[in-house]
Amino acid sequence: MSTKGLLPQPITGEIDHLLATNDRARRNASTFRIIFGWVLLLTGTVFSIIRLLYAPARNDPLSNIPIDAAEILDKCRMLNVQPHTPANFYERKQSDRFQAGTNPTLITNATIWSGRLNGLEQFTGDVLLDGGIIRDIGDIDREFVARLDDLVTIDANGAWLSPGVVDMHSHLGVHSNPGLRGSSDGNSHHGPVLPVGPFISSLGRTILTVTQWMRALDGLNTHDDAYRLSVSGGVTTALVLPGSANAIGGQGLLIKLRPTTERSPTAMTLENPYSTNTSEYDPLHGLRWRQMKHACGENPGTLIGTRMDTTWAFRQAYDKARQIKNAQDAYCQKASTGKWDEIKDFPEDYQWEALVDVLRGRVKVHNHCYETVDLDDMVRITNEFKFSIAAFHHAHETYLVPSTLKSAYGHPPAVALFSTKARYKRESYRGSEFAPKILSENGLQVIMKSDHPVLDSRYLLYEAQIAHYFGLPPNLALAAVTSTPAEVIGEDHRIGFLKRGYDADVVLWDSHPLSLSATPKQVWIDGIPQIKVPHVVDKPAFLQNIPKTPDFEREARKTLEYDGLPPLLPNHTSEGTVVFTNVSHVYARKGDSIVEVLGLRRGHDNGIVQVQRGEIICMGEASTCLELNTTGKPTFVNLQGGSISPGLVTFGSNLGLEDIQGEPSTKDGLVPAPLISKVPAIVGGDGAIIRAADGLQFFTRHALLAYRSGITTGIVAPQSQGLLSGLSVAFSTGSEHRLKKGAVVQNVVAVHVAISHSDNLPSVSAQVAALRNLLLGNGEGELGYWFEKVTKGKLSLVVDVHSADAIASLIELKREIEGTTFHPLKLTLSGATESYLLPSEISDADIGVILRPIRSFPSSWEMKRISPGPPLSDGTALSTLLAHKVTVAVGAIDPSLARLTRFDVGWAALTAGISVSTEEVLALASVNVEKLLGVSGSQSGDLVATQSGGLLEFNSKVAAVISSRRGLVDIF
C-alpha cells in the first residue's frame, strides 16, 4: 500500500529520495552490463535486490518507520482538532434523527419567538417541519408545501411558538422516578476524582482506587416515568449529568427526550462524539463536544475532607493530565519530523484521556460550585492549567463576584441557577432571587436549570417565569431555558432556536411562555408530535402577553450592599394609623370562607382603607374615610390599584423548625420514633408525644422571606422518620421570638402521623394497626390524652399519606373508629398524591385533603399514579377533588419555596380547567388550611396589601402586612 499522501512532507521526501537513488542504481547496472558482460549484470542486479528488500543500511530512513506510521500520524492530527459542526450541515434535507413515517407538519398563524437577536425577535408567521428539521419559517413557500404528501396542518390562531426547552442540568434516567434502589445510578461512591484516578492524598495514602471512565450513558434508565412528564412541560433536550459526590464525577450525556423505536440510551443520544459502540472519535461526522461534571465545596468534601483537599485533588488530577498531554505533544512533534528512532509507544492512559481532552479544549466542563471561595479556587485552577469552564451550576454566590468569573481562563463561565431555592445548606445560604437579574446586568450568561429530580424538570419554565418576576428581562428569561443553554453546551447549531435547518424541536403554548401556568398545546421533537391527545385549558386573554412585573431595583441593591444577606425586617412598623390609597379590592375572612368586601374598578384612585392598630376602621371612598378622627399623623401607602387580601398560611415544610436543612445545629431535629426504637423514659416513654411549639425557631430567613411574600402564618409539625410526629403549632412568620405578642397563633393545632413505605419502618399494615390501637384509646400518658381528643372530634388528625391503597385503609379505619366512639373523626390527608383516585369515597367520609406539593410528581412508588393534568390529562387532582365537594388546601414541602405559595395556588387554579373564583383560590392557602388543621380563623386574621395588582397576580408586589393579632402594620 502506498504511503503517499498519508505521511508528512519530510518523510515522503526521504522516500522519494530513496526511490530516485534506486533508479540511478538501475541505470549504473545497465552500464556495467555493457562493460563487464551479462554475468556481472546479473550479479549486480541480484545484489541490489537483496540490499533493497532484505538488508537495508544502518542509516536508511525507511528502517525506522513503524508499520502503523499513518495511523499514528492521523492520531496526532486528531489531537488538535476542535469540536465543530459537520460540513454542509445546513444543506441537510433530513435530520440524522429522522424517523421514517413522520408526516410533514405546517404550523400556521403562530406568534413566533425564535431566540434570535438575543431573544428579542418575535413575529407572526408559519413554520414547516419536514424530515425532522425546520424546513422553512416565516413566509413559507406554498408551492413546495403543496408537493408534500400527508401534510398535517395546524392553525395556531396566534398562539406562541418557541424552541423546545433545554435543561442543562438534569439527572433524568440516572436518578429515576419513581425512585427505586435498583435504578439509582447518579453517583459513584468510590472516590473523589472520577474518571481520573488513582488519587494520592497529601498524606501519601491512596484514597481512590477506581479506574473506570464514568459516563451517564452507561447508567441511563430508558424507562424513567419522568421523560413523558418532562416532555409535557416543553422539555425536549436534557444534559444528563452524574451526581456531585465526586470532585470529577464523569461525563454527561445529551439526550432528546422522545422515545425512539430502538428505545436504547444510545438512540436517545444527541450527537454522540464517538463512533457507535466504541470510544473512538468519528471524524466523518465532525468532532462533537463531550460534557463533564466537576464539583467543589460541600458535596465532594463528604468523601475527601476539606475544601483544601478537594482543590488539591483537582490540581493533582490536572497536573497528571497535563503531563500526559505534554508527552503526547512531544511524541507527535517527533513523529511529524520523522524522528521515529527517538520514540516508542504513544503516551496515553485510558483512565486519563477524558481529562486530557479538557486541556485540549474539547470538553464542556460543568462545575457544581456555590460559594465565593470555591469559585475563586476553580477560576485559579483554570488559569493554572489553561482550560475553560462552560458553566458554574447552582452557583449561589456568583452574583456577588462577577469579576471573578470574568477572570476565568478563556471566557467567563455561564451561570446555571435555581430561581429561589436556597438556604438548604451553608454554601447556598446567600442565594438570592435577584441573582439572575444581577448576573445579566454584569454581562454574564444566565441559565435556569432543574437539577431534576431536585426540581421537577417538567416545570423548568416556571423557574424562568420566577426569574423574570424578580427582574430578569423577558428575552433573557426565555433564552435561559432555550437558546442560552443550547449555546453553552455547544449545540446552538441545531437546537435552542427556531431557524431554517434546525432540529424540529418546537413547542406550541397555550399562553405566553413566561405567563404563570403556561402549558404546551403540543410538543414536537424531531418533528414528531409527543402528546397523542393534548388536553388544553382556555386561559384568560391577558396571559397571552409578556407579564408585567414589579420593580425590585431597591431590593437588588440592598442584596449586594449586604453581601447577599440584606435585612428582611419591614422598612417601617406602625401601631398607629395607616391609610392605604388607590385600593381596588378588599377580601376578608368570613367564617370558613373568603368574601370580597370592597370592589372598585382597577385604576380607581379613590379607594381607601384606613387601619388603626392593625384593625380596619374604614374602607370605601376617600371622602368618607379621611373625615374620621385619627390619633397621630397617618402613614399613607399608595397601592397603585392593588388589593388587600387575607394573609396566606403555609403548611407541610419544616418552616419554623429549621434554618439550614443541611446544618444540624440550625434545626430542631428528629423526634423519637416509637415504631423504630424505644422512646427514652425521660421523654415520656410509650406515652410521649412531642410538641412542635417547644422547638420553634423565629426570625429564620425562610420565615421572613415568606412573610414578605404574603405568608403570615406557618403551621409546622415535629419532624419524624416514623409513624408518630406529634403536635403541630401555628406561628407568625414575621415575629422575632415566641414571647412577642401574637407570635404563637395556636400552641396546639393537630396530631400528626405518617403512613408510608420505608426501610426503617415496619409494614404499612403494622403502621395502620398502631394507629388503630391509639384511636381505640390504648395510648398511654400524654399520647393517650391527645388521641382521646382526636377520637372525640375535638382535635384534627392529620395523616401524611400518598398511596391510594393506604388512603382506602384510612377511610375504612375512620368508619371503624366512628362506629365505636360515635363521634365524627376530623381526618385530614396531607400529601395525598393519589387521593384523586378516590374522590367520592373521600367526600362521603368527610375527609379533607392538603395537596403537597400541588404539582404532583412520582418521586416514590406510592406516588406513581399521579394526576398529571394538562396537557396529558383532562383535569388535575385539585379539580377532581373540588368537583366532588372535598375541602382542599395547598401545602408546601420546601421551606425556601413556601414563599411562592401565592403563585402555587394561582397556577393550580389556572390549570385546573374549572371555573374557580378569586375568593376560592385564596381560600386554598388560607381558610381551608386553617379549617382542615383546626386553627381558629379569628386568631389568624392577618391581611396582606399588594401594589399594582392582587395577591395572586404576577405583576403585584407585597407592600404591607396588616396584623390585628399583633396590633400593627408592617410596611415593606
Automatic annotation (TrEMBL):
**Taxonomic lineage from the root:** Eukaryota, Fungi, Dikarya, Basidiomycota, Agaricomycotina
* Top-rank lineage group of the source organism: Eukaryota
Q: Which organism is it from?
A: Somion occarium
Instruction: Please give the start and end residues of each transmembrane region.
Output: 34-54
What InterPro entries does this protein's entry cite? Amidohydro-rel, DHOase/Allantoinase_Hydrolase, Metal-dep_hydrolase_composite, Metal_Hydrolase
The entry's keywords: Membrane, Transmembrane, Transmembrane helix
Question: Record keywords: RNA-binding included?
Answer: no
From the Swiss-Prot or TrEMBL record, give the protein name: Amidohydrolase-related domain-containing protein
UniProt key word Calcium? no
* Residues annotated as domain Amidohydrolase-related: 426-527
